[in-house]
Amino acid sequence: MGEPRRPLLAVYMGALFAFLYLPIAILVVLSFNDSKLATVWRGFSLRWYEELFRDTEVLLSIRTTLVIAIAATVLSIAFGTLLAFGIERYTRSPALENGVYLPLLIPDVVTGIGLLSFFATISLPLGTTTVIIAHSVWGTAFAAAIVRTRLRGFDRSIEEASLDLGVREVPTFLRITLPAISPGIIAAALVVFTLSIDEFIIAYFTAGQTVTFPIQVYSMIRFGVTPEINAVATLMLLFSMALIVGAYLIARPRGPRAARPGEETE
Amino acid sequence: MSQAVIAIEGARKRFGETIALDDVSLEIAEGEFFALLGPSGCGKTTLLRAIGGFASLDAGRILLDGADLGRARPYERPVNMMFQSYALFPHLRVRDNVAYGLRAERLPRDEIAARVDDVLGVVGLRDLADRRPAELSGGQRQRVALARSIVKRPRVLLLDEPLAALDRKLRQEMQIELKRLQHEVGLTFVVVTHDQEEAMTMADRIAVMRSGRVLQVAAPRDLYRHPADRFVASFIGTMNIVEGVATADGIRVDPLGEARLQTAGIAPGAALAVGIRPDDVLLLDPGAPAPPDAAFAFPAQVETTVFAGAQIHTVVRDARGRAFTATAGAGGEQRREGSDCVVVLPAAGLVVLPEGPA
Amino acid sequence: MLAPALIWWAIFLALPMGLVLATAFFKGGAYGAIIYEPTLRNLGRALDPLYVGVLWHSVWLAALTTAICLLLGYPAAVYIATRASARTRTLLLVLVILPFWTNFLIRTYAWIVLLNREGVVNGALEGLGIVDEPLSLLYNDAAVVLGLVYGYLPLMILPLYAAIERINPEVLEAATDLGARPLRALRTVMLPLIIPGIVAGCVFVFVPSLGNIPVPELLGGGRSEMIGNLINRQFLTTRDWPFGSMLVLALMVILMALLVLQSFVLRRSRQVGIDG
After folding, report:
1. How far is it, in rounded angstroms, from Cα B121 to Cα A155?
2. Cα(B79)–Cα(B64) distance, rounded to whole angstroms?
3. Most exposed of A239, B1, B195, C156 (fewest Cβ within 10 Å)?
4. pLDDT tens for each residue of B40-86
5. In this complex, which chains have at least 3 CB pairs below 8 Å with chain B?
């Protein structure tokens, strides 16, 4: 009945959200600043957006990143779903489970270096393909974790009902099981897709001469502060928000909590 | 009545639009088993939580042994609560759960051990002292919660729906058991419940609450025999209700006739309802003479009969479509459904029922 | 059903890890060549105080980041978990996560915009006449920790929230009812019950902080180096892969130790009731 009133905590939450959002908000504001200097407001302008859309390097990197993200998502979902089912239904081995979730527990730099060494050893030339493989190895772990969460809450008696009503295993899986866990699969797809788009370190080691969007951003930042990045930030923020709202609408009632598989691997 | 342990004076509390407590005043006596009874949302839990220090009042005071508790925090009150969910500490063994409150008081180790052992004996859990809550059954958990709150020998023990989580059979056993325990430890118990049977079985006195108000405070027997208003009458057990019009010295029910009743304070001509308990209603064969104490007697048809072990419940309906329930001992005859009978409402069983607050 | 996924996993995860492990014990040749002769030379080099120092510095910064995230995240998690309406809780959680879904590099870059010599903070301070000269706010340990905290704070709040939300609020009330003052209730009931959440949050923050590359690179600017920068250089600049692999191995050893510690803490919290 009623929640504890904690005025101090409420003030603290306000400060925390300011800490989380002010830096991003400043980028958004500066992206519309006609001036190149962060400290001078010279009026509203879309010139950084115009420059951004004329920048062929940036556009190419976005294209590369989207190709990688789509391919990696498809592969991750396929293998991740299989793994989730395998672990949930056919084995109770904690060692196997931890192995599958390993990419979630080791730093990206280790995953990236491992794959780099591997690709070099089998003489696979670095490029879009290797990043796709790298991202799907890593995305599979996320997908498996998320789908497994969904499977754990899955009432198996509806499968039994289907079998009882005379439908064989494979059609039962396709018609009953898959639709029932599809919100988990879609949530997993959205998470893997978003993570892949944002992923920097693994791509950095496995991309060779190929430039993904985060790698492009990284080199722009290293080159110096430019308001073009502010425009990029604003557009990405919009894009992420659209994805989150989408994920939330699809994955309800679990909501955004399903979005962090990490909770399940504790 | 001996001196009041708890006195509540003009307690008010609202949550936004909802009024949880509306000018509640009560006194609870030393050693009493007191029940707060009412439907969900009537304010009984808010009142209990206010005594425990978990809810603050908007107005009014709560006195413990004559001293205002004010805004004392829960850990500063010599009052303990048994929570509805039992609220056992899942990471602690039974022994440590029970010892928790004594350790907070920084009592010597030996004394803690002795008192814990003692109280575990009282609730019959000595053998399970090293288990964790997850390894106990529902009934055992309930006993741990009880032991944990009585071991501190509070001035008052508050029990929030103590039996709600138990299955029916266990619940009935525990009603008796709680009563026995209360006698044994000699503490004042205040229990919140929505189950009238539970309150009637256990409590010395019951406060019936509705919409934040106390409608009646009385012993179970008085509550049953002399309900203060229509709500109390129908909330406690089953009550047949007859609507009529007040006369100078009683009630007139068309077309059944008039009866003499104590109707002090009700203006003649005003609408008036009287109630009668099913066990006071008599059913006779058609044509049988009405007994001299009958206030009303009228023909009806038997609709359903239910054989409930010790009793037979018969539902009859009169010519105007009014239903009455009559309860007789199992020794009586079971009437055939659809047969005719005469319903007799003896004057001694009639209770005047004011409308009461909405 | 499990087989194809397992094969995929073995080829692209187990094999590469084995490869790194093996490479760490080979000789590095000129121009990035790997000479397949077993050697302990890389191990000896990694134990050089220079590298041990960077390793230790990385662990220290990651630990500091984790501690700060725990301190900042706990009150937030408590606040969110104690909201009565599920809608409010969801909304607050989304607000916590949302920044996390904007590109990590861009969020790091935001701090450059804020903190550099011509940045927003210095501009404001000069404008208000508080300082005459712009302050050097970037390229030090504090900036690196700030960037890491900013990047990974949501990863601490979420598991803490999940753990706190799972607690029956009556259990906490029971503690106060039985005479425990707030601090005692926190120590004897709250903390033991949320240890799994604390451990999870710490792992989620510590691991990516320890192996981070862009934050020390961009906000530390070479002056606050972490092991990720070293590894990066061995593989992409110096091209001494065997030594780089040894550094990766060192990183993995630290993390193994951490995971052992984690499972130890978890087992302990499950076995021992808090006495006192």
Report:
1. 43
2. 9
3. B1
4. 889 999 999 999 999 889 999 999 998 999 888 899 999 999 999 99
5. A, C
